[in-house]
Amino acid sequence: YRTLDDADLAKKRVLVRVDLNVPMESGRVTDGTRIRAILPTIRAITEKGGKAVLLSHFGRPKGRDESQSLAPLVEALSAELGRSVAFASDCIGAEAKDAVERLACGEVIVLENTRFHAGEEKNAPDFVEALASLGDVYVNDSFSTAHRSHASTEGLAHKLPAFAGRSMQGELDALTKALEAPQRPVLAVVGGAKVSTKLELLGNLVAKVDILVIGGGMANTFLAAQGKTVGKSLCEHDLLGTAREILDKAKAANCEIVLPVDAVVAKEFKANAPHRTVSVDEVGDDEMILDAGPRTAALVSDKLKAARTVVWNGPFGAFELTPFDATTVAVAQEVARLTQAGKLLSVAGGGDTVAALNHARAAAGFSYVSTAGGAFLEWLEGKALPGVEALKR
Ligand code: 3PG
């Protein structure tokens, strides 16, 4: 693929796919890692005298939904960039066109959430065309959405001269260097809340890694598949069969599966909710699992001692709510400690994961932290990523 070094951007309208899908709470950005990751690309474009026109999705809206607007992100981006950033409340049509037209060379604008239009996820030709009419060249700086073949992540690369941005380039280089031929045993930690989309992927991962630690909401589906009561916990009850198949696949592939042995349970999903720590066999019907317990943290620490490479996506519990962050924090700190002691190579990825590692003050201790979650895991599975493939053409 071609990079920004190969691009003449002077006076050009540069459509840049970035990932502003960042963790937010009451209108404030709680982790700015993805914002900081795109600064080098934005600066390269403005320094070359181009107009930086930023495209991104936010959340998973079904059509226009002001609660999923990118508008609140503009201030955070502007603060990180140290300059003003314009905003247009639509990513296509007259308003977007006028706003891009008004933009001077060397200036930056964010266009509203691409997922407000159904054509984005469908990669619909007319929507790709409408986006393409706003730019002269296309830069993809969003490795974290490269597993999506959407209009802004894939379609545009076929319509305009296409280049990889600095962050995209850096992610691909770093992941290839760290994980192309990893030292074994490889231990993967997969947790978090996006259960249904990741279950499939676990099935492929068991063929790639030696030990798979399953945590977070994902683990509940596996516990339920083993006949345990998970009460009101996050759980995909219609995917128990899939979970069982994954366990069988793991056995056949000689991949050891590690599931939580204890859990911190509460009756409400809120910080400091009254809670108790129980074995995974003792979860009440009216309780939900909000974290793995201390015996699980110790078990995972023990498994880490045997590993040479660790990949991590997804927290063990509701780490944003005290005290349900304990196991995520304990394991993250242990991985960082072993990495710094030269015992492990560790790579973590994912919006929530990065936020969790920052919360645990462990991110700097990892060998590499990717901005990508789903894309990182698909890359790890060995799948071709449509966003990257399109850049190679
Ligand atoms: C992510 O957060 O992993 C990316 O922004 C992709 O988001 P998506 O899973 O909603 O496509």
Description:
The protein is an alpha/beta fold and 393 residues long. It folds into two domains: 4-167, 3-Layer(aba) Sandwich (Rossmann fold); 181-381, 3-Layer(aba) Sandwich (Rossmann fold). 40% of the residues lie in helices and 17% in strands. The protein is built from 16 helices and 17 strands. The protein has helices at residues 33-37, 39-47, 71-81, 93-102, 118-122, 125-132, 151-159, 166-179, 195-205, 216-225, 240-252, 294-306, 326-340, 351-359, 374-381, 386-392, and strands spanning 13-17, 24-25, 28-29, 51-55, 86-88, 108-111, 137-140, 162-164, 186-190, 211-214, 256-258, 262-266, 275-279, 288-292, 309-313, 345-349, 368-370. The protein has a six-stranded parallel beta sheet with strand order 5-6-4-1-7-8, with helices on both faces. A six-stranded parallel beta sheet has the order 11-10-9-15-16-17, with helices on both faces. α7 links the parallel β7 (137-140) and β8. α10 (216-225) crosses α11. The mean pLDDT is 95. The chain binds 3-phosphoglyceric acid. 3-phosphoglyceric acid binds at residues 19, 21, 60, 144-145, 148, 351, 373-374.
In short:
The protein has 393 residues and is of the alpha/beta class. 40% of the residues lie in helices and 17% in strands.
